[in-house]
What does this fold into?
Amino acid sequence: MRHVTQERALRTREKLFRAGAEVFDEFGYSGAGINKILERAGVTTSALYFHFESKEGLAKAVMNAQPQAIEGMLHSEGLQRLVDITLVWAQRLQTDPVLRAGVRLSVEQGAFGVRDATAYLSWRGIMEGCLREAERNGELRCDLDLEEVAEFVVGACTGVQLYAQLVSGRQDLPKRTVRMWELLLPGVAVPEAAARMDLDPMRGISA
Amino acid sequence: MRHVTQERALRTREKLFRAGAEVFDEFGYSGAGINKILERAGVTTSALYFHFESKEGLAKAVMNAQPQAIEGMLHSEGLQRLVDITLVWAQRLQTDPVLRAGVRLSVEQGAFGVRDATAYLSWRGIMEGCLREAERNGELRCDLDLEEVAEFVVGACTGVQLYAQLVSGRQDLPKRTVRMWELLLPGVAVPEAAARMDLDPMRGISA
It folds into this structure.
């Protein structure tokens, strides 16, 4: 019995999380009324408060789930893995409500009085991990501070995404991400590694 | 008489603009009540509607005034001018309410239902102009699409700013901007031009 209850609770949490992502993606934080979320999830107010404490709690959970939504889809390593993270992210942002809502909430959080760097710091950690591996593989220029590079890539992706959203509703984000790497690789990678990188934006679909 | 009236109207507009920038910077769009702005400006509601039509109109005016706030302060040319734009911007964002509010509103605009790329496109145009000059001066690698480079720099600055705001309240933005150029210059400039660039973050104060 206990097991069944736990499973049901997990399903309820997942329904709420998913509905929250969809509604935050579509309406932003302020426009996402709690009733809209509960209706879409088909659950009660008390479930929301039990699992996430508040609308803000749910928003933070969605905001901070971005890295998990990507990491499981990668098979490459080192510098190519770092590139792939950004290409998969750029492609999946076209359709995945969790990523879309996560990015929207991260960027707009100041407007609803939240200042939570968790998602950015998780991305930084993951990207720094790829860079450490790339360094061990001899792919990087030797004068780099890897934490700084990771922080710059997180920031640059965030801003390129914002720009793409304003000028094309994000449709050209994959192409812009490829261009970012074309500009960045000479400053980051040794020439042989730069030449070896696969920058096909469709890696974002097949990777 | 007519002249005096026009001058007074301009002063009123300037007061409203300034008060709007300060209040938007401090409270964001939703938190910036019209009365708060009018009180700080010491003008009437009708003046706001006469000069800006609405709170949204005032917000757009502030958002799109960023480039003018910077351009007059520059004395360099070509690639150094592009670098200086970003260094001056990073420094002045510490204190200038017009820039601070402009950036905040640009980033958070989705949260209040606005989608206005004007400020980003002005920056792109200005930066592309610097790059064209740099190209004529032989400072750039020959395989670049200058519009794409300009768009990337606008996006990257936006994102680095957002990252800096979350982790340091923007204090380390000048340092992060210098690092951005250290990573980007090898992909953008010929080696001699890259070596010649002055990346002292204090150029943002003295330039």
Summary: Chain B has a mean pLDDT of 93. The radius of gyration of chain B is 19 Å. The longest helix of chain B spans residues 2-31.
